[in-house]
Amino acid sequence: MRIIRTFHPDDTTAVISLWQACELTRPWNNPKLDIQRKLSVDDDLFLVAEDDGEIVGSIMGGYEGHRGWINYLAVDPQIHKQGLGRELMESIESRLLDKGCPKINLQIRKGNDAVVAFYEAIGYSNDECVSFGKRIIPD
Fold first, then answer.
1. Helices assigned H by DSSP within 40-79
2. CB 86 within 8 A of CB 122
3. For 67-71, which contacts have Cβ atoms below 8 Å and span 24 or more sequence positions?
4. CB distance 63 to 101 below 8 Å
5. Staple partner for 72: which of 36, 38, 60, 102, CB 3.0–4.6 Å?
6. % of the chain residues with pLDDT over 90
7. With the C-alpha atoms ordered 116, 76, 16, 52, is the resulting torsion angle positive or negative?
């Protein structure tokens, strides 16, 4: 049976393995530190999908009072296109809405057309923005 629940620190190894299988990790981001940082801020916006005790999905949300953000949406590649990504998004959207969040933003790496199509299919659109970033703590 599949459930969506709040992340627990015991899920760390399984979640990192899922992120690696989904090619979400990058050399400049330490996934263990990303998890530790998330657990210190709005840990209720870090969800996992569990199917018969196995982690098969994750999503990390954030809200700073103006916009919500989505990071690390991951679905086990073996079960893509079965609705879990949509379920995870609906779960995090509901939690963000409960916090009074009026709009959600997310970033997609250039060229990731399948992910663009997924988000378009669930009602997201390209805001035609340029994303800038600056690392201030190296991992």
1. none
2. yes
3. 67/101, 67/102, 67/103, 67/104, 67/105, 68/96, 68/99, 68/101, 68/103, 68/104, 68/105, 69/104, 69/105, 69/106, 70/104, 70/105, 70/106, 71/106
4. yes
5. 60
6. 91
7. positive
DSSP state string for 83-116: SHHHHHHHHHHHHHHHTT---EEE---TT-HHHH
pLDDT, mean over the chain? 96
State pLDDT tens for residues 52-89.
Answer: 999 999 999 999 999 999 999 999 999 999 999 999 99
Distance of CA 89 to the CA centre of its chain: 8
Burial (CB count within 10 angstroms: exposed 0-12, middle 13-18, buried 19+), residue 55 = buried
pLDDT at 139 over 90: no
Residue with the two structure tokens 């992120």: 19
Using the Cα atoms of residue 10, residue 20, residue 129 and residue 118 in order, give the sign of their dihedral. Answer: negative
- Chain length of the chain: 139
User: What is d(CA 116, CA 59) in angstroms, rounded to the nearest whole number?
Assistant: 16
Strand-pair category, 68-75 with 104-106: parallel
